[in-house]
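Good morning,

Attaching, inline, the backbone tokens for the sequence recovery test we're adding to the shared suite. The designed sequence is right after.
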């Protein structure tokens, strides 16, 4: 046989000495396949190096056994851990995951959604760049496959997997207040997305419950960039009544804030208390270990996969919303309010 020629099912049938229909039954797990028939077809497949046409198989099955995953930036450690857990859980059920990143580009996000649709994916897991971008919402509503939306509030009849950010920040503010802090800064990515809105809401809720006034200049929502958080933290530290604690939510935001604190000659845990967010991996190289608003990032990805798999098995079920809890894990990055610094309550 010409080695450059693609091996066909006809070649396999000829080599095995059986009909094309018999080969098809064996390859697709159909009925009426004896042990002898299976052995002969399998031997022929191995000898010839036959590779089934995945596209044709998916058309016959009505399933591509592939899941699309769209996030903004896989370089974000939280997304990386989530996506890894998501892929592992999908693979356990025989699905292959195809990952794409929008790189914070709304136009690219729409193109990728349309590409996933055109490729005939069985389902999609998505964390959108925006909750209000018209073309993105239109592309999501046009999907003919089920989708699981990660940590966003969108007007869609899809399944959602969320994180309880509000309770996490409430617990963080209460803990810092118990240490005597009254000037607590909040740094979080975009207040125009659910995580930022929920965190800000928790911040204000906790202040109200404690009888503390919110100083709006201490609430900073911005893109997840190091230079931005560095500049914002530097600015706050120059205030006469500077904050004595910061809740810095996001690895890059935390990095910029810590750099500003260090350059100001302040010591974390003594002059400035710091609360971060993420899984225990945040503390692998941190010294001192940070106080964390912890949520199980791996479980986040696993749950998203399980919700989607359940949807594929039971498409008639009503849309679901699953919310993962957060937990405050106390580390050494927080301490009592220093004698110098903010004094107002």
């Amino acid at each position: 046989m010409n080695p450059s020629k693609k091996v066909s099912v006809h070649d396999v049938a000829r080599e095995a000495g059986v009909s094309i229909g018999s080969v098809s039954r064996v390859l697709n797990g159909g009925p009426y396949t004896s042990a002898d028939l299976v052995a002969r077809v399998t031997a022929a497949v191995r000898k010839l190096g036959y590779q089934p046409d995945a596209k044709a198989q998916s058309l016959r099955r009505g399933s591509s056994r592939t899941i699309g995953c769209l996030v903004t930036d896989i370089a974000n450690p939280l997304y990386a851990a989530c996506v890894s857990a998501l892929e592992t859980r999908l693979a356990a059920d025989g699905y292959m995951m195809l990952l794409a990143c929008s790189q914070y580009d709304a136009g690219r996000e729409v193109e990728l959604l349309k590409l996933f649709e055109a490729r005939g994916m069985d389902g999609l897991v998505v964390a959108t760049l925006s909750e209000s971008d018209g073309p993105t919402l239109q592309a999501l509503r046009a999907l003919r496959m089920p989708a699981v939306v990660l940590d966003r509030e969108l007007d869609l009849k899809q399944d959602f997997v969320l994180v309880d950010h509000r309770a996490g920040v409430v617990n963080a503010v209460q803990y810092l207040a118990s240490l005597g802090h009254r000037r607590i800064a909040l740094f979080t990515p975009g207040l125009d997305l659910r995580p930022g809105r929920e965190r800000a809401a928790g911040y204000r809720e906790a202040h109200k419950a404690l009888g503390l006034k919110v100083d709006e200049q201490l609430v900073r929502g911005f893109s997840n960039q190091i230079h931005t958080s560095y500049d914002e933290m530097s600015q706050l530290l120059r205030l006469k009544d500077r904050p004595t604690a910061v809740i810095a939510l996001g690895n890059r935001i935390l990095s910029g804030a810590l750099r500003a604190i260090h350059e100001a000659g302040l010591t974390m845990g003594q002059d400035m208390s710091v609360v971060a967010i993420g899984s225990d991996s945040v503390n692998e190289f941190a010294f001192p270990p940070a106080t964390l608003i912890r949520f199980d990032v791996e479980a986040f990805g696993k749950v998203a996969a399980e919700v989607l798999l359940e949807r594929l098995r039971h498409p008639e079920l009503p849309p679901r919303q699953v919310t993962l809890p957060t937990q405050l894990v106390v580390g050494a990055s927080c301490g009592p309010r220093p004698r110098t610094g903010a004094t107002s309550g």
